[in-house]
Design brief:
alpha+beta
């Protein structure tokens, strides 16, 4: 498995926890999105830029495996990489860590569609090139 060249941090807010102060499992899905949007901001001009160019990236699958609990006011590092890009589909992989300790891992799958028609469309060359650059060893 390749490296994770991009990461972003999130601090667990009280609203993201249960009565025991443990991060709710659904919060992790939000944090994956935070990391994915930050990744796109750095490498592809941001999600708004992608939409302005006529493309939507729909989430088609979310998979998470939880290894450890996370707690209110902790800072987690979300590592993300684009692991597969073919046709109109691409996959992001994630590692959620606390001080280097694995808390959760997973992936999301996405499909690109035309923003006006919502019909599937290939990942545009400019976006594929931005992702390839982000995932290159020099990034």
């Amino acid at each position: 498995m390749g490296r994770f060249a991009f990461s972003t941090d999130v601090r667990i807010r009280f609203a993201e926890t249960d009565a025991q102060g443990i991060a709710h499992h659904a919060s992790f899905v939000v944090w994956l999105e935070v990391a994915r949007v930050a990744y796109l901001e750095r490498h592809a001009g941001g999600y708004a830029s992608i939409r302005e160019r006529g493309i939507e990236a729909l989430t088609t699958e979310v998979q998470l495996r939880y290894h450890r609990a996370a707690y209110f006011d902790e800072t987690l590092t979300i590592r993300v990489r684009c692991a597969d890009l073919r046709g109109a589909r691409f996959t992001y992989e994630y590692r959620i860590e606390r001080g280097g300790e694995l808390v959760a891992e997973g992936h999301t799958r996405h499909a690109t569609v035309d923003r006006g028609t919502y019909r599937p469309t290939r990942v545009p060359d400019w976006l594929a090139e931005a992702i390839a650059t982000a995932e290159s060893p020099a990034a």
